Amino acid sequence: MDLELPGLNGLALVRKLKADPETADIQIVAVTSYPKRFPRSEAMAAGCAAYIDKPINTRTPPGELEQLIK
Known about the structure:
Layout: E1 4-5, E2 8-9, H1 10-19, E3 29-32, H2 40-46, E4 50-53, H3 63-69
Parallel strand pairs: 3-4
Antiparallel strand pairs: 1-2
């Protein structure tokens, strides 16, 4: 989930998804280019399972993402 969405704060959308019983169990990975605007602590508190800031090294998966797929 990119946290910088047009017209909607990504963290608000994460909170909506986590509040809905139909989507509450989805693991959401927060992705952002703005770690100061969207800190890891806020993303995790909103219900994200992992947090990755850009730029992303595409040659090796970030550690948090690796943990989710194991």
